[in-house]
């Protein structure tokens, strides 16, 4: 597909045309097999922590959206995967330097050509988004989608950092919970249930 074809497919929301740009989901999950994964949320409270070394020691470090990193001490420095639901500007792309980009948003019109043709690009299926939305009763955050996705893999462990379900707000902005379209109580319950039933997953505070 060339750039013009991509723009047409994106505008028309032609999912069948866009999906060939993506690595298949089974191949993406196979990359996590046997790995220790660190998923980094954007809670402000993480900036007060000293988890950076442990984060960088993971086999796969996954960050979310604009991936604010207050300091190497709190956040580490590596980004193997970047899960996006927002457009990534040139400066942030250079700062984060992700090894692979995953487009998690159902809003295909926000997807840009550079991201869609980046190495190892992954386009999250609309059916997966819809299923988690139905389960939560609200549009899922990028973090919730990534937890749901990674939990399906044969990873050895998944450590969650920077997830307090908006209790300390987000390093990415100043919006309060009432100004975003997510249900953080339901997401907290969803993660608590996963922690109870999947001992590979840890919530690091």
From TrEMBL:
CC per GO annotation: endomembrane system; membrane
InterPro entries: Glyco_trans_29 (IPR001675), GT29-like_sf (IPR038578)
GO MF assignments: sialyltransferase activity
Superkingdom assignment: Bacteria
Protein name (record): Glycosyltransferase family 29 (Sialyltransferase)
Keywords on record: Glycoprotein, Glycosyltransferase, Membrane, Transferase, Transmembrane, Transmembrane helix
Residues in the signal sequence: none
Subcellular location(s) per record: Endomembrane system; Membrane
Coiled-coil regions listed in the entry: none
Membrane topology type: Single-pass membrane protein
Organism field: Paracoccus litorisediminis
């Amino acid at each position: 597909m060339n750039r013009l074809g991509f723009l047409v497919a994106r505008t028309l929301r032609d999912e069948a045309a866009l999906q060939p740009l993506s690595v298949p989901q089974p191949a993406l999950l196979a990359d996590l097999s046997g790995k220790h994964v660190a998923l980094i949320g954007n809670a402000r409270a993480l900036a007060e922590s000293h988890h950076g070394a442990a984060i960088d020691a993971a086999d796969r470090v996954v960050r979310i959206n604009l991936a604010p990193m207050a300091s190497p001490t709190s956040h580490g420095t590596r980004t193997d995967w970047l899960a996006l639901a927002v457009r990534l500007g040139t400066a942030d792309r250079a700062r984060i330097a992700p090894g692979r980009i995953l487009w998690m948003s159902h809003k295909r019109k926000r997807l840009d050509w550079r991201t869609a043709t980046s190495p190892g690009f992954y386009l999250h299926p609309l059916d997966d988004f819809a299923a988690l939305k139905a389960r939560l009763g609200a549009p899922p955050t990028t973090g919730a989608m990534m937890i749901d996705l990674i939990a399906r893999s044969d990873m050895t462990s998944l450590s969650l950092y920077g997830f307090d379900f908006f209790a300390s707000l987000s390093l990415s902005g100043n919006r309060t919970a009432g100004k975003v379209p997510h249900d953080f109580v339901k997401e907290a319950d969803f993660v608590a249930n996963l922690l109870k039933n999947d001992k590979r997953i840890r919530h690091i505070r």
